[in-house]
Structures are given as structure tokens and as C-alpha cells.
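hey so u asked for the seq, here:
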Amino acid sequence: MAPGPKKSFDVEDAVVTAADLFWRSGYDGTGISDLEEAIGVGRKSLYDTFGSKRELYLRALGKYADTVIQRMCDGLSREGTRAISNLERVLGKLQGHHGGSDSLGCLLGVAMGQAASDDDELASVIRDALGRLERAFEVCLKDAQAAGDVRADVRAKDAARNLLALSQGMALLGRVSHGSTRSSSAIRAAIAALRTPSNH
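ran it, C-alpha cells below
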């Protein structure tokens, strides 16, 4: 069988562009015509490539996990610095980003807010992405405990879930509340609760 014609657009770039639209407007607020205009291709090309708007949405969420979420995970495991410093730096970057007037929050948070309670496929995609970040928080906390910077009685898994909730809370607040005062105080409280007494 002869190969079909080459696509006239970069598929990965299209996914990134779609992710930005979904991030700004949510799934329901992003129409096919919006995607056509932003990506610069016709409806037939979009459907031929991705199958449906939903399939493109799921790919956009996967791309977000592999880029934005993975960068956070990489920051938490950065070599050459103490784990507690990695944690403080990653949370501080989140605070700075979500405290700005251009914050869009977290694409995963936007997706959670619009997900139907019976949409198991979407829930699985979101859980997998957030689970990746939660595990990175847990490993970072265990490394900080080994270095004596986090209290030995802290349960790393439970604390990691709290930090995941904190990061998502900062992202959601960032969509509606400009300024980093709330996030800053929440981060200080979270770190203070984790540190060993001699390392406050």
C-alpha cells in the first residue's frame, strides 16, 4: 500500500498548542474551530490525525505530564544540592509562577474541575500524572530525612500527598487570586512542619 500524503503540520507542536488552549479555556470551552485556528490546519486534518477532540485532549494532558510535571520531578531530584533545598526551590517556583497575573493554574487541575464523575479514562490519565509528582515528592522527602533535614517521624508518603495537595491548591488559587502571599505562607508552614527542630 502506498503511503499517504505527508502531514502539513508538526503533530507534536499541534499537541502543545492544543494543550495551551485547553489550559486557558478548559475542554468544554475549547471548540474545534478554536483548535483549527490556533494550529493552522483544517478540521479534516485534525480528525484524520487525532481522531477526535477528546483524543487530542488526552494527548495534550499526556504531553503536559511529560513536560511540565516531569520538570518538577526532575527539580525535586536535582543532583548536587540537598533534597530539602530542591523541595524549597520547586515549591518556590510554583509560588512565583502561580502568584503572577498570567497564571493559568495547572492543566491537570483544570481537567479535574471539568471531569465527569464517571469518566474513568480521564480520571486514570490525571491520576497517573499526579501520581508521578507525588512519588517524586516522596523520594525527595526520604532523601531529606536521610540527610537529617526532615524529621524522622514524618511519614514520607503522607507528607508527599500533602505537598501534592498544596501544589494543586496554589495552582487553583493562581487562576483567580493574583499575588503570592497566601502561597508563601502555606509553603513556609509546610516546610516548617517537616524540618527537624535544629534545621528551622
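The radius of gyration is 19 Å. The mean pLDDT is 89.
lmk if thats what u needed
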